[in-house]
Amino acid sequence: MGYIQTNDNVALYSESTGEGTPIVFVHEFAGDHRSWEPQVRALARYYTCITYSARGYPPSDVPEDTALYSQERARDDILAVLDGHGIEAAHIVGLSMGGFATLHFGLAYPERALSLVVAGCGYGADPEARDAFKAQSNTLADRIETEGMDRVAPGYALEPARVQLQNKDPRGWAEFAAQLGEHSSKGSANTLRGVQANRPSLWELEAQMRALTVPALIVNGDEDESCLEPGLFMKRCIPASGHAMFPKTGHTLNLEEPDLFNRTVLDFFHEVEAGRWALRDPRSQKDG
Fold first, then answer.
1. What gap in Å lies between CA 267 and CA 244, rounded to an integer?
2. Which of 272, 270, 261 is nearest to 213 (CA)?
3. How many CB atoms lie within 10 A of CB 59?
4. pLDDT by residue (tens digit) across 77-96?
5. pLDDT at 130
6. DSSP state of 252
7. pLDDT of 43
8. Which residues have a Cβ under 8 Å from the Cβ of 125 and sit 6 or more positions away?
9. How far is CA 65 from CA 8, 188, 190, 193, in A?
10. How much is the average pLDDT of 192-213?
11. Above 90 in pLDDT, residue 210?
12. Torsion of CA 116, 120, 126, 129, to 10 degrees
């Protein structure tokens, strides 16, 4: 464990566990480096598992200036983590906000990614929902700054795509909600304003995704309504992608169904490392 400096002088807290081919885990808005504990415990038996807290998430630095938060900076922070650990290329696994960063990393630095796992990604990504999502993000940022993250967290943790975790694993949900309440109010608000509200729609990335040849796995829960169409859109665009759907599952995939998540990504990594995860056969695509 230790700190890594980004190219704009922000210190990111990072932990590394295990030995072998590296995996870098990129957390969601409601998570931090601790969110990947079920994956680290299982996968560190075979891989080097690296987690980190994004900028704005203690014990990483919490820059006061909203201008220091953006989708591009979130993307490049993954690169800083790789460089800080002396890693040439790794499997990159991201959830939700971390899934967006993972996708953008693959588009910008494909040579540094062995594969991409883009899970629960797409909330607010529909072009028709962009204005509403931006307004919603800014309103939530104002509320967090006014009330404090500790008071906002319990309600946020019970959003429609998160109640599944509470129903399946009450203790796990309580831990998730408690950790969310410990987040920096300033860092969370700045992340909403700088990253979430201003990130481009996935539909704006169509041409770039169609040129992406890094092996990719798109993962969705079938009750994570806001991310279903974006997940299918990414599958249709990215030539080397597959799509896994978890039944009766919401947004917090890796915590809600840890065993299924771990098996799914392990099988994917094995296919990639065996050279068996090929580009889609053009004959499989329907004309018209």
1. 11
2. 272
3. 14
4. 999 999 999 999 999 999 99
5. 83
6. -
7. 98
8. 201, 202, 203, 230
9. 12, 12, 8, 11
10. 96
11. yes
12. -140
The predicted model scores a pTM of: 0.97
- Separation between Cα atoms, residue 115 and residue 175, nearest integer Å: 30
Check whether 113 has a pLDDT greater than 60. Answer: yes
Q: Which DSSP letter does residue 130 get?
A: H
- Stretch 106-114: mean pLDDT, rounded? 98
**Predicted pLDDT at 287:** 63
Please provide residue 263's backbone torsions phi and psi, each rounded to the nearest 5 degrees.
-65, -40
* Look-up of token digits 């203790």: 171
Helix intervals (H) in 96-242: 97-108, 130-147, 149-156, 163-168, 170-181, 185-191, 206-210, 225-237
Which residues does residue 14 pair with via DSSP β-bridges, in sequence order? 2, 52
Structure tokens at 202: 């996935």
- The C-alpha torsion from 51 through 251 and 70 to 101, rounded to 10°, is 60
Beta-bridged to residue 52, according to DSSP, are 14
**Is 134:197 a contact under the CB 8 Å cutoff?**
yes
2-5 sheet: strands from edge to edge: 2-5, 11-17, 48-52, 22-26, 90-95, 113-119, 216-221, 241-246
The yes-or-no verdict on residue 234 having pLDDT over 70 is yes
Q: What pLDDT, on a 0 to 100 scale, did the predictor assign at position 131?
A: 86
8 A C-beta contact, residue 188 and residue 144? yes
Bridge partners of 242?
217
The whole-chain average pLDDT of the chain stands at: 96
- Which amino acid type is present at position 96? S
Residues with Cβ < 8 Å from 34, sequence gap 6 or more? 51, 179
Return left, alpha or beta for 275; rule: phi > 0 is left, psi -120 to 50 is alpha, else beta.
left
Nearest Cα residue to 223 out of 254, 244, 246: 246
Residue 203 token pair: 């539909």
